[in-house]
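Take a record.
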Amino acid sequence: AAWAILVVLVGSPYVSGVEIASRRVAGEFIFQFTQFLDHQTRHQILDELLPRKMWEEVLESRPFTRQSFPSDFMVVKVLRDGLQVDQLKHPRLKRIVPERRYRILTPHDASLPASAVREAETRARLPAPSSSRRILSIAEKYDAKQIWAKGFRGEKIKVAIFDTGIDAHHKSFKHIEDRSNWTDEDTLEDRLGHGTFVAGVVAGTNQECHGFAEEAEIHTFRVFTQRQMSFTSWFLDAFNYAIQTRMNILNLSIGGPDYHDQPFIDKVWEMSANNIIVISAIGNDGPLWGTLNNPADQLDVIGVGGIDYAGRIASFSSRGMTTWELPRGYGRVKPDIVAYGRDVPGASINGGCRSLSGTSVASPVVTGAVALLASTIPGERRARELNPALMKQALLESATRLSGPSIFEQGAGNLNLLGASRLLADLKPRVSVWPDQWDLTSGSCPYMWPYCSQPLYHSAQPITLNATLLNSLAVSGRVLLARWIPDSSDDCLLVSVQYPSQLWPWSGYLAVSLQVKEKCASMRVTSTGRVMVKVVSPPAYGSSKEQEGEAWLSIRSEVIPRPRREERILWDHQHNLQYPPGFFPRDNLAHRDYLDWNGDHVHTNFRGLYAKLREEGYYVEVLGEDFLCFDARWYGALMIVDSEDNFREEEVKKLERDVADGLSVVVLAEWYNADVMRKIKFFDDNTQIWWTPQTGGGNIPAINKLLASWGIALSSGVFRGSFSLGSNVAQVKSSSSISRWPAGGQLYRHTMQDEAASLLSSTKKNVDVALLGLYQPSSSR
């Protein structure tokens, strides 16, 4: 237990993911302004920033052009290479970001490149009406008939469908009120069928695939071409039009991992601020964790996951947590809610029915339900009180929790249409927290996994509960007070609370960090208490008095005596990097989708390893700061897994001291080969840009620097294969090897396939390489 053993295991388990969500368009930038401006004023600002010969506005031949109404952005092509566009400043300019291009990809068409959403479709033929087995529409599955019987069918509710369009005279719809085309194709028709299907789930009238709200007004926004292409700027124009035409609900059955597409994110916030209830698919990248798509992962959006008819989480449905907050924080709970998303019947282009699967199907299920629910609220009250936060409160608080899945898989649970209807009948605007109950004890598993998987103890890294504040009192507000109130005066928890300076739109985060007080270092107790939050918002319409609201978040946690040093493992998450900040390739080069965006966290794509370590009796903590910020005396081992970032010189020196004082280090490295990195760079024909990896599967040069003082180095080779240790078989996929090892250490060697040779020259050869090393430094205690 006193040994400081340095272990290097090269080649970590492969975890697959999804295709690239979006790519930059060469030389094109979105100039965002601080307000809506006419075409002439926008050009004047550009002329003040750049000589006219250096830029030109990008104008597609579209039915709706940017000259036709004021806009808060324009797309500009910069004609001079090397110009630092992001350095341009103007008082009326908000920001400048690259234009991005999106593409939808279905798994049935692997020839298509980048994707915004992987559409897991099942084009099953529905039985004919004469079949002995009657088809149950998805609306009937949720007992919509009981609400229809009361005379509510979505009347006077305007629903925006952002998709592939719809045919004007489709016989499955009563009210196609408006169709707009924001693409460069001269048509409003749906040539793919996806937009028609989505609209049918919301408001279709075919009895075999009846939608939820047949009287709702359908407004289609054609933002994808028949080539399944779109641009950020097309969405921004369409979003502006949705705001100006006062949509009530907006369905986005699309998404991607690019939560750094700031203009897109800002406009979604703006739509919510304008009282549009935005509902979006959480993504089809399950069963992997940490694969949530944007914008469904935003606080203000209702993010929808998918389940099958047996109430199981669909294998394709993306899982939480959100990765925006990593590495320094902890992700939020998403999805918000789940709905049926496998083999759901809906309208087809030819007027009949077909079934599809995917979270892009579950999203319109919730959209249709929300349209129906909104119509049950009397018109005057609906105009005064209904907003995105109120509807979200009703859905979350009425949802039916599923038995088995974690909160990061199901959110609040399955859509409960009748329960939400009953709740909305009396629900008044207020402040709430979701989740409002955080039971971290082992008895709350599996729903509260991973929080329930490990108790708290003194000296551990802080545990963060990232909750969502919902404020249906007003679109904006501020937190007056957030205070921890323990149930006992001798409480063991040290609690700190963080929140934004302003709640907008309709929401904000509430981050509660937990640590154990030193006085409880040897105690075994259950600590309980509540966080009380007071929020103040602007006056309601017709009033001059500010509105105040109060919400409570309850916490229950197990505190145990501080574990022994040799039982504690510290996981380095600080040095993990992933898309979207840059192109970081996957660990397994056999997977031709090279983009790594899953977060490399013990609770996302390394959750299996975490579960195994816990099963073996280890306590695993996550380090979200550099090596200078932890006291190595408390830990038996530091795990550095799939590291992409550099290590500062001060970190290297501290680690040397820590190992000398008894800390073990476990390194699970990856491949790094400059020739292979050049080989896997790709030229995007759509955007005319080369994408080059910023590092390999791991940053081997940085790891070699970290380990240099012990005489250890890893190679630039890339190898794959398998080897056995006792009864255990390890798969090695795209691994480096150990090229230098100090005398007195132990090495395990095995014959592997030279993957670099195979990739670079199509040469097949096997090489004997060192894969596993153990070393006891003579200077360690």
Q: What stands out?
A: The chain has 16 helices and 35 strands. The two ends are 10 Å apart (CA to CA). Confidence is low (pLDDT under 50) at residues 1-5, 11-20, 105-135.
